[in-house]
Amino acid sequence: MLEHFHVPEKDRVMIHHQDLLKTTSDIFEAMGMPYEDAELAADALVTADRRGCETHGVSNMLRAYVQAFSKGNINPTPKWKITRETSAVATIDADKGHGLVICPRAMDIAIEKAKKVGIGAVTIHNSTHAGMMAYHAMRAMPHDMIGYAITGGGAVMVPTYGAEPRVGAVPHAWAVPANKMPPFVLDISSSSVAANKINLLRRTGAPLLPGLLADEDGTPLMEVGPVPDVTRLLPWGSTRDLGSHKGYGMAVIGQVFSGILSAGLFGISNPPGNGSQFVAAFSIDAFRDVADFKNSMDEFLTYLASTPPARGHDRVYYAGLPEHEETEIRDKDGIPLHREVVEWFDTTTDKLKLDRLGRT
Amino acid sequence: MLEHFHVAKEDEVRIMPDALRKTVNELFLKIGFSEQDAWQSTDVLLLSDTRGVDTHGVSNMMRRYISGVAEGFINPTPKWTITRETATTANVDCDRGLGIAVIPQVMKLAIEKARETGIGAITMGNGRHAGMIAYHAMMALPHDMIGYAITAGGQSMPPTFGAEPRLAPNPHAWAVPGDKEPPFVLDISSSSVAANKIELLRRMKSLTIPGIMAEADGTPIMDEREIPPDNIVLPNGATRELGSHKGYGLSAVAQIFAGILSDGAFGPYEGGHMSHFVAAYSIEAFTDVQRFKESMDDFMKYLRETPPAPGHDRVYYAGLPEHEESIDRHERGIPLHHEVVEWFDSATEEFNLTPLER
Questions:
Q1: Which of A19, A57, A300, A319 qualifies as a cystine partner to B249, CB 3.0-4.6 A?
Q2: Percentage helix, strand, coil, to 5, in chain A?
Q3: Mind listing the pLDDT tens digit for each residue in A170-189?
């Protein structure tokens, strides 16, 4: 994540990930989720924080989830079911269950199918917010599989040339295991920035960069300035000349595999808070010898990371490498939360009569 | 395609698709392709030219294919083989066959697998140029399937923050059927522009567009200037702030599914070697086909009916402009640069064929 999206040092409280995991799981359980589900959801959420993907961690998301539970928008005890199935694919009605729980379970089904026939793919509807997509894709890696995950959305982003938001900033995530190198994990929204990075910008007071957002009427804002009150997300690429039709297109194809394929949901027809997802697992062994593949991955990733850097840069990365390094640091030093977020935890645990967030 | 990539009016010669098809097919036969492969290769090129994807049509590609065969780099009579297979997957050795001849045959196999299990996906190594990959993805459409195609290979694009090209603008293409609406067909390179659009720009004597290429040392060119002789295309997004890591990432994903998964190819792997990947997803396996297609119609209509932003008169979805262009070009012919038509004349003369009909 770019530096100016991080919590400023003066506002940081360092929290150990085990403490964060426990309190987050306690809160999910207090919302009515069974213990196993609460633990799974907490792991998904805290993994985002450990990897430095603050936008999809506890700070932005947990209070939104607590609110959604109390309004009845997330079902803590869903009876989700498979409504259609073949040897390689399935469609799931998630019964308004939490996306953080449904997606890993659906991925487990995809993995089982991939073990038997080579590939498994599951489309999901009637679900809710699914957190950081990389988490679900990464679940395939210990099984020597490539994972893929998408979550569809409503209408927050303008199509190329459009004046009105009609697609979500639909993210796609791929996770590919290597041998000794940290895995390749690409998790990209199809907008210039993830929607809730804008909230983060507002909270940290950082200025807006050119090409990240459009005016209310869809005109790309191409100058540095404060974040306006009403903005539209731009597709990745910002303008047609720079390839915004690619971000727009990725959003549409993501919506097709999640919302349209599962239940015909898109844009306005998709009620707020209603989530659709798609997960798939590709068994490496079904294509090539696993050890050979992983060694090739090591060579490829080493080749990329050893590219001589351009002027003004000291290193070249590949997707998943910075997040892997950040996880090592944060597992040791703790996760930097904004003190305002820690205060929210204390108020919430007090209200729910839970142990307070540990500060070990 | 953006207006400034098109052939200038004063330079264009309109050629009817059937005339172009006849000459291209004859040329493929002359360089040793089987009748089936010649037809197939011609069909891929013609679809690019009728859909307005000039970068991947006859103008840029035909002479390269002919010299590729002459130099022994492209095998005109490949015996492609399956080296590993499951119910949903396969790994294919393309035997140096031209992608536009081999990939459609492999896509048929993926479609068969999808009919049986719900999904078919095939990785291909030891291949050659794939042409416009939307073609391969679109093959799934008449079977009520979603098609997906990737081609990858070479190194012409630097990673984000990199000073040296280490991967290519590997494209991904998806094709999704609607009911009455023209299908959704997205075919996107992972660079700001397809590498051979820069060639096209140079031929048109256009200036650089800010954010589409870098200087030879990887520094993004963010102004308008003459196209420097040494340049590298940038990942889509141009800079890290605008999301160049997404273009870089999509390129790596393509290289993994096509190259690494088939035989480990990436970077400096036999110059011009290409790897491919195709997949077909049977809609029937997930949901009711008619329900799906009607939902697609509603979705695509919703998108193209978005009120346009100031300065624009219409909003499109991927595949719609190409569909409309195709109707127009079938009526009025394909606009070729006169220099390309001259090349055809010299080629047909060399091969003792009747010249391209005007």
A1: A319
A2: 45, 20, 40
A3: 999 999 999 999 999 999 99
Chain B residues closer than 8 Å to A318 by CB: 159, 252
B309 to chain A, closest Cα gap in Å: 4
CB contact under 8 A, A242 and B312: no
Do both B87 and B63 map to the same domain? no
Q: Which domain covers residue B103, as residue numbers?
A: 79-189+241-318
- Split at pLDDT 50, 70, 90, the class of B241 is confident
Task: Give me the interface pTM, i.e. the ipTM.
Answer: 0.95
Return the residue of B nearest to A266 by Cα: B299
Is the Cα dihedral B324, B326, B329, B334 positive or negative? positive
More confident residue, A45 or A210: A45
Of B202, B219, B234, which one is at a domain's C-terminal end? B234
Domains and CATH numbers, chain A: 78-332 (3.30.1370.60)
- What residues of B are in contact with residue A308 (Cβ under 8 Å)? 162-164
Of A216, A234, A218, nearest in space to A157 by CA: A234
Classify B92 as helix, strand or coil.
strand
The beta-carbon neighbor of B261 closest among A160, A293, A315 is: A293
The tokens of A165 are what? 């938001």
Domain count, chain B: 3
Say if residues B267 and B275 touch (Cβ distance below 8 Å): no
- What average pLDDT does the segment A210-217 reach? 85
Main-chain phi, psi angles of B295, to 5 degrees:
-60, -40
Residues B281 and B260 in one domain: yes
Checking if the pLDDT of B272 tops 60, the result is yes
Among residues B95, B119, B101, which one has the least CA distance to residue B109? Answer: B119
